TrEMBL record:
Species name: Candidatus Abzuiibacterium crystallinum
Residues making up the signal peptide according to the UniProt record: none
Name of encoding gene: otsB
Pathway recorded for this protein: Glycan biosynthesis; trehalose biosynthesis
Protein name: Trehalose 6-phosphate phosphatase
UniProt-listed GO biological process terms: trehalose biosynthetic process
Length: 269
């Protein structure tokens, strides 16, 4: 059962007072509210300031872990000294860190070949758009009329069928988006584990991981930190319905995410 982070802060803050903290943050829906188009999901200056201050605290390490393309998420956050994982962790860059998953390089060629066909076939569905993220592709349907969503999915599955059967790609679902990924077990959870291993190899003290995210694809990361770390899920209607999640804590809004980051900064600053 997920507990509201706000109500648990008194107890939790004691645990977070002195440890090395590895803070992993999703971007869309976590640091910015869900908007009509991904390009409109801008981080406010006030929120950037909170991230920047927290990033300067001793023994705190921060990474953004997003489904977006790496260069895009970096451009939106604009804090150079932070670490970034883009494309669900297939690309990582940060001080002393660099990764492009080898399989992702291979799959990128397939995705670039598939792209024109996908765009042509899906053109008939109004509101649907295909985003080219190089190592992965996103098919956004948040502007598609509800009655057309099933048809859109069928059309997509028809095009992808031979590739799915030959395991040349994977299809996953997020909030109003279908994603085509390289056919390997690699996701935000694996990326978080990889990042922690890198960090741990350079330090004697353990790092306590915290992951904050809002979507289905963040569940892999909550699972990766479960037990030894802390998962925090952003659930917009937290009070109204019970939530099934691998996260132990819940927050009800982006605002509450920043409330948490701020009290954490006050605790550690
Ligand atoms: Mg998200």
């Amino acid at each position: 059962m997920m507990k509201r982070l706000k109500h648990e802060w008194q107890t939790l803050s004691k645990r977070l007072q002195t440890v090395n903290l590895a803070l992993f943050l999703d971007y869309d829906g976590t640091l910015t509210p869900i908007v009509r188009h991904p390009r409109l999901a801008k981080l406010s200056n006030q929120h950037r300031q909170i991230l920047r201050r927290l990033n300067r605290c001793p023994h705190i390490w921060m990474a953004i872990v997003s489904g977006r393309e790496l260069k895009e998420v970096k451009r939106f956050v604009r804090i150079p000294s932070m670490t970034y994982a883009g494309n669900h962790g297939f690309q990582v860059s940060g001080p002393g860190l660099h990764l492009v998953h080898p399989q992702a390089k291979k799959s990128a060629r397939l995705f670039q070949k598939l792209l024109p066909a996908l765009r042509a076939e899906l053109k008939t569905i109004s509101g649907l758009w295909v985003e080219n993220k190089q190592l992965t592709l996103s098919i956004h349907y948040r502007q598609v009329r509800a009655r057309d969503v099933a048809r859109a999915k069928q059309t997509l599955q028809k095009i992808l069928k031979p590739f799915l059967r030959q395991r040349r790609l994977k299809m996953t679902e997020g909030k109003k988006v279908w994603e085509l990924r390289p056919p390997v077990t690699w996701h935000k959870g694996e990326a978080v584990k990889w990042l922690l291993r890198q960090k741990q190899s350079k330090s004697k003290r353990p790092w306590l991981p915290i992951f904050i995210g809002d979507d289905v694809t963040d569940e892999d990361a909550f699972k990766a930190v479960k037990g030894h770390g802390i998962g925090v899920k952003v659930v917009y209607n937290l009070k109204r319905k019970p939530v099934r999640s691998q996260a132990s804590y819940g927050v009800a809004s982006v605002r509450e995410v920043f409330w948490f980051l701020q009290v954490l900064q006050q605790l550690r600053g």
